[in-house]
Automatic annotation (TrEMBL):
Belongs to the plant acyltransferase family. Pfam families: Transferase. InterPro entries: CAT-like_dom_sf (IPR023213), Plant_Fungal_Acyltransferase (IPR050317). Gene3D superfamilies: Chloramphenicol acetyltransferase-like domain. It comes from Brassica rapa subsp. trilocularis. This is Protein ECERIFERUM 26-like.
């Protein structure tokens, strides 16, 4: 299903835009300085959708939502600021309380009807997204779309500029909002003004595999693609993975190994020997601050993945090398004015299985569905894996060049990871 942002173009329609910001003014002259890692992520955006039943949200108004976000933005006012450039060209965020855009829309379906579609990439139409630029001073860093279903249910979709923080930060902010909505007093620590050090791996003399410099994009922050990309989403169960694909390793590593092998087969590409792994930092400080500190690791093998045994592939994923130190250094080059892609620079696997998306409760009830993906994925593609509403299930969202997707689906069916009956056949 394509993006639906015009009246009458589909079940989602009636868009109305307004603004919400901080309740308290930020001190004049306050700025937020992105780190090298932040700047390396600036062409990427995170998209998340939380869908709630009518019983929990029928009487939740736009004003309820806005007033509660006031409380959250008071804690971290720089995420409602606007980007500027220094004389050198380096971007920074001016904390001027310009606010976040709130987009109201309606859906002609009930929540149950909406969730009948197995391919959850349809949820992309519940996220209003505009890239940063071309006028930095007028570009919000967050969009919040509120879609009311005809049954009274509610979808809250967020588009989040990755320069501010990783997917774990977005989830944290949204959970803070639900806690504030419940009347709790919330607190979010400020991001440290000093650069956070990342462990320096043994030098190999090579540039990291997980980041790729692209041609300058100027002030319109859109990742360039040579090919048209498309997205497909399906569910798997942890039990099926462990039963049908026996291998030593964590479920994310096994599932990533299966998908890496399927994509390599579909491409007929014996050179698909390098991937990127993005996952939470096990050493992240608590309580969580809003920032980019996700672990970005690289895996390189010297064998044909398409022909290899799954056990061998999974073992190599478990030995991924953390490259954040080098990415942070590269992001600082030329005082942070260069442009890069990370997701899709190499085939990228994103582990969100440990994110507590379903802890974002309204009236003590979890969302009935959560979707999360990345906008601005490079030509090598990406796979995002996150928990489903049902315990023991995982949502897998694959973004690849359009010309490859049918071949990849065919390989997924051959290996038994998806079936035409359960996953729509595609």
């Amino acid at each position: 299903m394509p993006r639906l942002q015009e009246e009458g173009s589909g079940p989602v329609h009636g868009f109305w835009m307004s603004t919400v910001g901080s309740a308290r003014p930020t001190e004049t002259g306050t700025v937020h300085q992105p780190t090298g890692l932040d700047l390396a992520m600036k062409l990427h955006y995170i998209k998340a959708v939380y869908i709630y039943s009518a019983e929990m949200t029928r009487d939740l108004t736009v004003m309820h939502v806005k007033e509660t976000f006031f409380t959250v933005f008071d804690q971290i006012s720089w995420i409602t600021g606007r980007l500027r450039r220094r004389d050198s060209g380096r971007p920074f965020i001016k904390c001027n309380d310009c606010g976040t855009r709130v987009v109201e829309s309606q859906c002609d379906l009930t929540v149950d009807e909406w969730l009948c579609v197995p391919d959850r990439s349809v949820d992309e139409s519940l996220v209003y997204h505009q890239p940063v630029g071309p006028e930095l001073a007028y570009s919000p860093l967050i969009y919040i779309q509120m879609t009311r279903y005809k049954c009274g249910g509610l979808a809250l979709g967020l588009s989040w500029a990755h320069i501010m923080g990783d997917p774990f930060s977005l989830s944290h902010i949204f959970s803070l909002w639900t806690r504030a909505l419940a009347g709790e007093v919330i607190y979010c620590p400020q991001t440290s003004g000093s650069r956070r050090g990342f462990p320096k791996p043994n030098s190999t003399g090579k540039e990291p595999n997980s980041i790729k410099q692209v041609d300058p994009v100027g002030d319109l922050w859109v990742a360039p693609n040579k090919t048209k990309m498309t997205t497909y989403s399906f569910k798997v169960t942890v039990n099926d993975i462990k039963t049908n694909f026996p291998a030593k390793g964590f479920e994310f590593e096994i599932l990533s190994g299966i998908l890496w092998k399927c994509i390599a087969k579909a491409r007929g590409d014996s050179e698909l020997v390098t991937i990127t792994i993005v996952r939470s930092d096990p050493n992240e400080l608590k309580p969580r601050a809003v920032r980019n500190c996700q672990m970005i690791s690289s895996v390189h093998v010297d064998f044909s993945v398409a022909e290899a045994d799954l056990e061998e592939i999974v073992k190599s994923i478990g030995e991924a090398t953390d490259e954040r130190f080098w990415i942070d250094e590269i992001g600082e080059r030329d005082d942070g004015v260069l442009d890069f892609v990370v997701y899709g620079a190499e085939l990228t696997f994103v582990d969100l299985t440990q994110v507590d998306f379903y802890e974002a409760k309204i009236r003590e009830t979890s969302p009935v569905s959560v979707y999360c993906n990345v906008q601005g994925i490079g030509d090598e593609g990406a796979v995002v894996i996150l928990p489903a509403a049902k315990e023991g299930e995982r949502v897998v969202t694959v973004t690849l060049p359009e010309a490859e997707m049918d071949k990849v689906k065919c390989e997924l069916k051959k290996c038994g990871l998806i079936t035409p009956l359960v996953n729509g056949g595609g």
